[in-house]
Design goal:
Helix content: 25-40%
Structural class: alpha/beta
Number of helices: 9
Strand content: 15-25%
Bound molecules: glutamic acid
Length: 281
């Protein structure tokens, strides 16, 4: 079995990341599996090599060593582009020129990521050269795959309901791939059999399951773990004042002691674990 920790190097890691890495690491170790580190660095605007360096140091300091070499999404852009072409050739992606404001004005329902795209460009003849994004025709995709399900080790068997997102963006002009496409392809490429990640990505799994069916990828099991939250129930974030792991490391704190406290469910004052967080990145 193989698990992974997949941070995006667009900021310093904090205690919430340490908890996510610990779940992936400890589960792999307990089951005699491998723990893979994948750096999700395709957002060129926000990714910084310095944060990658810090991530490697933080994991070593926490006593959570990964197996093999870290893998970098920035080195896999061809595979994302090829999958995009494959979905286009299947007639499942369409170009979209709508702006965020247009979508907000036209949307009539809300999904996990905010206003649900009402399908404005689905039947329009948009010049592909003018497209800001390519969207997945989710309904049409589901007619090809039929009903889908997936299994979370804690929440149990789930019926896949990707239509809750509307026709999501899979390719963007300003990015090599969307999170959904890159993460799904990489979990397959890395042979991940148990995807551990936070509850904030629970709903994203409905999309990932659909992409796996369309692209004929193996289907892992998932384990969406609770998130560390602040007293107001929102997940920890550096900008809201919790010190980063790097801050703690440089201040001379012992990373292994911190990891052990997280394992035992001992958290800093005001911080607790919650399964009730539903946000997507
Ligand atoms: N890169 C994502 C993040 O840092 C995690 C993605 C995943 O685990 O699927 O939030």
């Amino acid at each position: 079995m193989r698990t992974r920790f997949a941070p995006s190097p667009n900021g310093p890691l904090h205690l919430g990341h340490a908890y996510a890495a610990l779940v992936a690491h400890d589960t792999a170790r307990a089951r005699g599996g491998a723990f893979i580190l994948r750096i999700e660095d395709i957002d060129g605007e926000r990714s910084r090599p310095a944060f990658v360096e810090e991530t490697l140091l933080d994991l070593g300091w926490l006593g959570l060593p990964w197996d093999g070499k870290p893998v970098f999404q920035s080195q896999r852009l061809e595979s994302y582009a090829a999958a995009g072409e494959r979905l286009k050739a299947m007639g499942l992606l369409y170009p979209c020129t709508c702006t965020r404001a247009e979508i907000a004005a036209a949307a009539t329902t809300f999904g996990p990521d905010g206003p649900v795209y009402p399908g404005t460009c689905r039947d329009r003849r948009v010049d592909p050269a003018a497209a800001a994004a390519w969207r997945l025709d989710v309904e049409r995709s589901l007619t090809m795959t039929g009903p889908l399900s997936w299994t979370d080790e804690v929440a149990g068997r789930q019926t896949a309901t990707p239509m809750m997102f509307g026709d999501i963006v899979l390719l963007r002009k300003d990015l090599p791939a969307s999170y959904h496409l890159a993460a799904t392809l990489d979990d397959a490429a890395d042979g991940i059999s148990l995807v551990t990640r936070g509850m904030d990505l629970f709903n994203a799994t409905h999309i990932h399951r659909l992409l796996q069916a369309l692209l004929e990828l193996p289907v892992p099991t998932w384990l969406h773990h609770p998130l560390l939250v602040e007293p107001d129930g929102r997940k920890l974030a550096k900008r809201r004042g919790s010190p980063s792991l790097g801050d703690r490391r440089r201040a001379g704190e012992d990373g292994r002691t911190i990891a052990q406290a997280l394992r035992e469910g001992r958290f800093p004052a005001g911080i607790s674990l919650s399964r009730g967080v539903h946000q997507t990145p």
